[in-house]
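Handout, section 4.2: multi-component inputs.
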Amino acid sequence: MAYLVFSLSLLLIYVGLALALHIQFGLLGIPNFGVVGFWGLGMYAMGVFQVQLDLSFVDAIVLSVACVAAASWVIGRLVLRLDAQGILCATIAFSAIVALLIVTEKWMTMGVVGLGTIKYPVRIGGATEYLYFFFLIAVVAALQLFTLRLHKSTTGRLLLAIRDNEEVAASLGKDTYAVKTFWFVITCIAMGLLGALSAPLNQFLTPNMIVPSVTFAVWIALVLGGKEHSLGAVVGVFITFGIFDILIETYAPVTPELAVYVPNFKLFVYGLLLVGVLMFKPVGLLDPGLPPEAVIGKGIEGVRTGVALGRRLVASSVSTAKTTSGTTGKTGSSSSGPDESPAVTATAEPGASAPEADGISQAKDPTPEKPS
Amino acid sequence: MKLTASGLSKSYTAHPVLNIQEIMFGGHGIEGLIGPNGAGKSTLLGCLTRRIPPTTGSVTFERDGQDHDLISLSSHQVAQLGLVKTNQRIQGFESLTIRDQLRMAATPPQREGWRFSWKPDPGDPELEATIDGLLDRFPFSNPDGFAKSGGEKKLVDILRCLIVKPKMLLMDEPAAGLPDEITQEVMGLVRSMVEEGELVVLIIEHDLELIWNNCDYVHFLSEGELLFQGDPDEVKNNRVVAEKYMGV
Ligand SMILES: Nc1ncnc2c1ncn2[C@@H]1O[C@H](COP(=O)(O)OP(=O)(O)O)[C@@H](O)[C@H]1O
Ligand SMILES: [Mg+2]
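Output:
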């Protein structure tokens, strides 16, 4: 259970990162390929302030965010007048520098030894992780709400105009460089804040968390979901991280021998999905013109059909189990044993439909693998 | 309103495309700028509005009795002073509807700051009325949709520039790509605004009828140099202009 909360918390962090990237790239056209740099800087700053300087949670968060703000302002000044390739290279380089400094500056970061333990803001016994999870929900929901509203504002319209044609926007009197710098810094701050909030989640920070695959996971999710749509980030993260890192890694009945292949299989399917989307629907699953209300409606409909499908699957498997009453029952009980909800045990098939994970109280594979 | 450039030159990798001793715009209501293709007309307009950095020279914009050195400014500051240019090449904002492009152009920057980023566009009734007026006057297939044809995009470009209420408008080949009756309508609107004293205009055009019919003063540019200027009749009858431009 604790592992599930951890996974879901991480999923929220990814949704937040994808939302920030959506504003940065989807609305403003800045191809930031150094997401992990801003996130990682926030996370490690949080660790250093808490562990080395023994600051309180709030003080450490404020200072970490200030560090990220300063770094992103400098980066913005340096790169935002460059073209897309320039920005791409510079932001990748920035994240590489952050990763390198974390390894080399041992006096501060403890290098490869790792930095810990980072405390939760409040500890209430077994409820700590849950409380923190709800806190993360609130933060990410606020970010999502802001994004939805930004789309309808004069500011959002200006960002789109700058993305479409910066030169013409400037020729109409818009200070495009200042606008880009401001929103680049704000969205990097969001990434840094999510990093700082990830620190207590991970408890113990190691340099191998600061790897480019974080950046790629965020990018793939956003591009899949729809980079220009206000809900593309959520949808994309649920399809990638949600299905693979949570549903399949946790609930799919894979044997330990096969489990080794899951991460590779995951990358393979990500790649396939990405190529498919880029070939057949380059804007991503969600069309920018689709109103968010319609997407939410469709989502609810999808979950309903998923639940119905699950019910039918259960019903049929139960009936076949009754008739054959054989021992071949791979479908259910083998791993979870006498669990309270039979609906869920049935959805544990590899291709299982909706993320109906509510009733599950036991993660199948409890080895708490390090994320990154 | 006076726009003066002196010693203005522009070279691309040692290849000079513009070399003007002294030129002044704004003394007449509507002025024309003509010359063969590649004469450097668009380059001149680009240098004046800071879209293109000139190699040498100075540009001064006099507004309300105050001189502004444009060379030290950036493109958006030039626009905020009231000097705005329409584009020869079709350029626009693909992800904004026609109406939103006009709204965006007319919304002052201070109403697009972070304080407004989580509020729905409050909408300015006066601006909406202006936009409705323009969209009634110029027929778009769907003003609440995206500009479709090249002509629609070109027209949106011109309307975008008009709605920001410039003091001086530079128009780079406005008739190219527009149907004749739309060009007439645009020129009618521009003329009425000039007569009201709202702005002065400089037009680059190859459609000489349009120049002769609308302009009070015409500049002739060839191979980057200002060869002649005068009122339309003088230009029409000038030997150099005839040889270099109309003769061919
Ligand atoms: N970016 C550029 N690089 C090199 N040469 C250019 C560039 N832009 C324009 N030119 C050259 O400058 C000359 C003038 O171009 P332009 O100002 O567009 O002429 P006009 O608008 O009068 O037709 C042309 O010979 C053109 O080839
Ligand atoms: Mg031209």
